[in-house]
Amino acid sequence: MLLRCSAQDNLRIREDVRDLIDHAASTQSKTRSEFMIDAARRAAEDTLLDQTFIRVDPETYDRFVEVLDRPPGGEAYERLMSAPRPWKD
Questions:
Q1: Does a structural domain hold residue 53?
Q2: How do residues 33-72 score in pLDDT, each as one tens digit?
Q3: What is the pTM (predicted TM-score) of this model?
Q4: Domain limits at 23?
C-alpha cells in the first residue's frame, strides 16, 4: 500500500548534488523522488539497526562469548587464510 504524505518536503540542494542524484537515479531507472526516498529509508533503517539492543540471559551470553573466544579452525578457515590477497602483489 502506498501512502501519500499530505505535506511536501522541500529540500534546498546545490545544483551539482542534484545532478549527481539525478544521474544515480537514472542508472536505476528511478525518479529523483524514488531514489531519495529509497536512500532515506535505507539510512533510517541502518541508523535504527545500529541502535538495536538485544537482551539475553546470562547463560546465553556466556555461550556467545565462548564461541567468539574460540580460535578459528577447520578446512574452510585454512582455505580462506591461504587464498591470495588482492591487495598484495
A1: yes
A2: 999 999 999 999 999 998 988 899 999 999 999 999 998 8
A3: 0.54
A4: 15-81
Give CA torsion, residues 22, 27, 30, 31, to 10 deg.
Answer: 20
- With respect to residue 88, please indicate whether it lies within any of the assigned structural domains: no
Coil vs helix vs strand at 41: helix
Q: What is the DSSP track for 41-83?
A: HHHHHHHHHHT------HHHHHHHHHHHHSPP-SHHHHHHHHS
Q: Can you tell me the distance from the alpha carbon of 38 to that of 45, in angstroms, rounded to the nearest whole number?
A: 11
Task: Specify if 6 maps to a domain.
Answer: no
What total number of domains does the chain contain?
1
d(C-alpha 59, C-alpha 45), whole Å: 30
Kindly state whether residue 40 falls inside one of the protein's structural domains.
yes
